[in-house]
Amino acid sequence: MGRKEKNEQQREGIRQMILKEAKNLFLKDGYEATSMRKIAQGAGISPTTIYLYYKDKSDMAYALHKEGFKILGKQFMVLQSVENAFERLKAMGKIYLRFALENPDFYEIMFIMKEPIEFLSKQDTCEWEEGEQAFNSLLNTVADCKKEGFFKEMDERIVALNIWALVHGLCSLKLQGHLDHVAAAHLGEDMQRDVLDDAYNGLILMISSLR
Amino acid sequence: MGRKEKNEQQREGIRQMILKEAKNLFLKDGYEATSMRKIAQGAGISPTTIYLYYKDKSDMAYALHKEGFKILGKQFMVLQSVENAFERLKAMGKIYLRFALENPDFYEIMFIMKEPIEFLSKQDTCEWEEGEQAFNSLLNTVADCKKEGFFKEMDERIVALNIWALVHGLCSLKLQGHLDHVAAAHLGEDMQRDVLDDAYNGLILMISSLR
DNA sequence: TTTTTAAATTAACAGTGTTAATTATATTTG
DNA sequence: CAAATATAATTAACACTGTTAATTTAAAAA
Questions:
Q1: Quick one: fold of B56-208?
Q2: What is the CB neighbour count within 10 angstroms for residue A75?
């Protein structure tokens, strides 16, 4: 009995080791450029051994996807200490934005890449738990803002969705390289540096007048 | 002399034929799933012949990227007949959204994929002409709205960027599959169908009160 | 008609994700 | 303890991928 438990732990240890190597490579070279063979070499095992621990490559992408949501969730923890709902909403967006800029590869796996979501669809559970939970945090905050007089006569779900879409839009345009090109053509050099912050502050300004 | 001109035309003809086949496959199976060999087979030529007409695979992605912007530009043409600036802005967003939903693969090549933008960066011209032009249309419309009393005391470039980010955010969340999961968890079945329209109408409602 | 030039092709390289068959390693049983 | 069994890991193999270099074919010029 004790034997088997130890075996389970050993298995988990190898699982973790593989994921650690996959993470290093994914975050360094990106998903497509990271091959199973490279991961295996880094982990000191045979390429096909990975398939004894993960179903396929997208399975590993999903594992990192989950890890990313854990990190983001931890960063959201500080929001609990923010009493004022609107301040909390503002801080939430800032954290989200900062997370995307500081962890672009995690962000890509979490919100841009199709693979992790497709992996979910291929599995029995067709629920995107991580995303739904994160969206719920936003939804609750928006609902709290409504109680304080914001977003009158608007569906809080629609408001939350729009805010998410806006911030995600900024992040993805930035990370995919589109934003820089447009910024270079339409904004002064001084403004280019902090386009994202400027845009976000503009958003806050707009929302602020929606009392 | 005449000979050479005819040759140039022949070359262009083959170029078009290759691109046509690439387009079919890209729009059917996606960029990654489309191989040079499949394109060549469809065009009835040898795989390596493609490299006599296009630098590499990302070059063809960029060619389709340009084609997509031509289509979108044509659909934007009707906006010229809309006198009222705010109505024009509303219509612009609707056209953009519809284009994304009706041409998801074009949209992906134009606004999500890194390859076309990266191809630009590798070339001498580091300008994203198509994107900048499209953004300019939006920028002018926002500026016109400002003259009519909207977006007071706000930088029109910031407003335009936020609107683009919001609509793009909705489109990309929808196309990558994230939106459907969240909608399934938080919205009733009746609302799921037209989440995008509902969200966009919500946006218009919010902006409308920004006079 | 021969020479030159350009276009298209085949062969080849160095990889990719993944499955099936095989070997090595523990674990359990006689 | 030795033999049989179960499991973990490996090698071999498949059917691909984008791309380059060398070679052949076709057309134009001399």
A1: Tetracycline Repressor; domain 2 (1.10.357)
A2: 16
Enter the CATH code of domain B1-54: 1.10.10.60
Q: State which H helix or E strand residue B130 sits in.
A: helix B129-147
DSSP string covering B172-185: HHHHTTHHHHHHHH
Contact list in A for residue B121 (CB cut-off 8 A) is: 177
Note whether A206 contacts B203, CB cutoff 8 Å: no
Q: Would you tell me which residues 186-205 of chain A have a C-beta closer than 8 angstroms to some C-beta of chain B? A: 186-187, 195, 198-199, 202-203, 205
What lies within 8 Å, CB to CB, of A123 at 6+ separation is none
User: pLDDT tens for residues B109-129?
Assistant: 999 999 999 999 988 777 999
Residue A153 backbone zone (phi > 0: left; psi -120 to 50: alpha; other: beta): left
The pLDDT, as a whole number, for residue B126 is 77
Q: CA-to-CA distance for B32 and A27, rounded, in angstroms?
A: 20
What pLDDT shows up at residue B6?
Answer: 52
Helices B156-175 and B85-102 cross at an angle (nearest 10°) of 30
The pLDDT value given to residue A10: 83
> Which residue numbers in chain A have pLDDT < 50?
1-5
Residue B9: the pLDDT is: 80
User: Which residue type does A42 have?
Assistant: G
Looking at the complex, report in whole angstroms how far the Cα of residue A130 sits from the nearest Cα belonging to chain B.
10
Residue B46 CA to nucleotide D24 C1', Å? 14
User: Which of strand C's nucleotides are less than 7 A from any protein C-beta?
Assistant: 7-11, 15-20, 27-28
Tokens 């990558």 locate to B176
C-alpha B102/C-alpha A119 separation (Å) is: 25
**What is the DSSP annotation of B100-125?**
HHH-HHHHIIIII-SHHHHHHHHSS-
- Mean of per-residue pLDDT scores for chain B: 94
The whole-angstrom separation of Cα A107 and Cα A100 is: 5
Query: Are the CB atoms for B178 and A174 separated by under 8 Å?
Result: no
Number of residues in chain A: 211
Residue ranges per structural domain of chain A:
1-54, 56-208
Q: What is the pLDDT of residues B54-94, one digit of tens each?
A: 999 999 999 999 999 999 999 999 999 999 999 999 999 99
